[in-house]
Amino acid sequence: MTGTRFDVDDPAVTRFELVREGARRDGVEIVHYEPRFPIPGTKAERRVERTVAMMFLLAGGAATAFLVAYIWWPYQYEAGANLTKLYTPVLGLTLALTLAGISFGVIIWAKRLLPHEVAVEKRHVGGSPADERKLTAASLVNIVDETDVARRPLLKFAVVAGLLPVGAVAVVPLVGGLLKNPHNPDALLHTGFAPGVRLVRKDMSPIRPEDVSVGGVETVFPGIPGGTTNEYADSPTLLFHLRDEDAAAAARSANADPVNKDSMYLNFVAYSKICTHAGCPASLYEQQTHKLLCPCHQSQFKVTENARPVFGPATRPLPMLPITVDADGFFAAKSDYKVPIGPGFWERS
Amino acid sequence: MSAKRRRKFDLKAVPGSVAGRLDDDLHIASPLRKIMNKVFPDHWSFLLGEIALWSFVILLLTGTFLTFFFDPSMEEVVYNGSYVPLRGVTMSRAFESSLEISFDVRGGLFIRQMHHWSALIFMAGIIVHMFRTFFTGAFRRPRELNWIIGVMLFWLGFTEGFAGYSLPDDALSGTGLRIANAIVMSVPVIGSWAASSLFGGEFPGTVIVPRLYILHVLLVPAILVALITAHLVLLLLQKHTQWPGPGRTNHNVVGERMVPRYAAKMGGFFMMVFAVTALMGGLFQINPIWLFGPYEASVVSAASQPDWYVMFLDGSTRLFPAWEIRAFGYTVPPLFWPTVMLPGILTVLPALYPYIEARFVKDKSVHHLLQRPRDVPTRTALGAMAIAFYVVLLLSGGNDVIADKFDISLNATTWMGRIGLLLLPPLAFWAVYRICLGLQQHDREVLAHGVETGIIRRLPDGRFVEIHQPLSAKELEYAGWAVPKKMNRLGALVPTVRGFFFPLEKPAPTPVSPAPQRQAIESAEEIESRH
User: Fold this and answer.
1) Region of A224 on the Ramachandran plot (φ > 0 left; ψ -120 to 50 alpha; else beta)
2) Within an 8 Å CB–CB cutoff, is residue A291 touching chain B?
3) What is the reported pTM?
4) What pLDDT score was predicted for residue A6?
């Protein structure tokens, strides 16, 4: 074809020649093109054909099985070992077989039956031709020329000064709508505890000193409406009943601390359960070493030493809740926590 | 002659006339053919990005299904559904509707699990694709912009995944949100304001799940779709990179036209990714929220791990020492560095890497040919260093599980991570650098002296030498492409007889020494089995 113009209407031109010419016009040269099976109908070809057919039939069979299972298999949860437990696995298996059948069918067809070809496409390295660039650049610069801002300083000023606030209009309401002051009310400093608020269990039942076994620990909440729910996510507290010698050590260090002074009640001490690192509940207590571990990032706090951090990323001790026993003999808070509970933030000194 | 006779309807002419009409109106014959004739190079490593692409499609499909049943409300309800163990438990409506999807919607659990697995595969696809792009130098000029889009896609996928993970409001996701709140709080100056604004007050509040929901189903997916489209359009405009090889230059693309073969293979690969996802969604349980229960601020269990792509940040948080800056009545909490600063660095540094490397090697030229990792030892070693850093963080994200399963002290695993984080990356750099040089040297050796044959010859003076098969009469130049290292790559071994139940071809004659030429063997076979 080289040299002569390709005639698309020439009846002698085969379809593949048209394809090749089309590709050529698109900058693609088909340099190698050969059928997978030059002699049609050989054993090997029929074998590939059968494999592909089998894949599609497998897909069809599995799809039917999927539909049957989806419609008739019992799907709603029932307790105990029963067929419902197999509903999801059966769906997964049949759908996977369906899709795998299509996948293998199509891929084997493409790789083993479609002609093998090598095509080469030209690639332009670098930018557009220099004249094209110049024309486009001129069109762009012309925009500025037409507005003539250089000659009209007043307009320049007016556009900048006038549209700057307009841009802010697009942004400010979105941020403004979301904006919420964390210090009004100062939620970061307060929990559900207040003078006289009882320490209660999850079921709102109050606790007497004798309810907590020696060496034991109990998660307690403020005994106010909603105090045990996520509404007071900052309030969960751990109430420890220490052994005599541990309690003595704890009391010594508590009383040496200006904040925790007089916050224990006999051998009982209460610390915030909310880790001062990232706010997870520090919930694993090792009685023998008096260490409290937060499972999220493994900060460890020494319960007998003002719950100071002894390992891991936490930097501050768990705040101590000042506790006492009220007239009815139930545990109650003497006051709220004296320092902010939970993770640190910028304006926390 | 009846004028009323109905014109004969010619079914065969329909496609032609429809196509003609379409082109008349839209003028698309040339652009359509141009697209169809687009040449794509073929290599297995080019499929890694497709894993991410197809997973994204699966995510859109399964996610749409889930939106029909999920209710992001934080309203408190008492569960009374079909899962008996949780009956009577107070929970949010979001958690209740997640339970309904799992137990009462026909096929709901299957789709939910597929959605979750697919998200994990999506992120894994992005990361392995990124490795491929990095180690082969595909990010170099002119593809820096597409590389940056890729980095953004990673973090968007990360955000999208975390938002989705948080929606069911179960014990695990609530804990994740608790930490996210603390992370936002840790940002200097604006932290408490930002956290309070995002959560609508104190943690947890009642707006965060609905807000994450709209983020998860609308905002982030929209940006993802836009960026993925841009990613692919840039790929089409710039054309795919290719490996060096016979006939392949910086000025062409050698491969096959998009239709039909390449498109068929792509479609088949989509089905394969889909099939694997379906199998995992059906057979492998993931995120069984009914076992975790609803979120309660006072409850967490050990081995609370996030999804795998978040785990490296969990690891960095665990490893970071208890360093807090307190000055002038203000605090920078320790959480800030491993969870805000580190991701910041991990965004900026990779995004700028193409420019940094170009500056260092003083290379401003345009590259469309890929590099073998061994040929760029410094980059490959840097990549290995990054992977070592990442893997230490990833493993540290599960150090409590490691400590438990291997019976090691928990604190010891933390220290192992801290030391490993400083020690292993340089070690990986050194080792990989040496390996690259060794591989390079071996390539050159084979090109100069030939392939080891395994045949030992005894020389008259008693020495034993191995005979090498030279690749060519004269010494060959290294061309940046794989060098045959084994005799069977040169056709020394006869092909095995094909056929499962019966031989499809005549068995080759028993090999004699010296081995016959490959051509001699092939001509004896049936022609049909070869192409």
Assistant:
1) beta
2) no
3) 0.91
4) 84
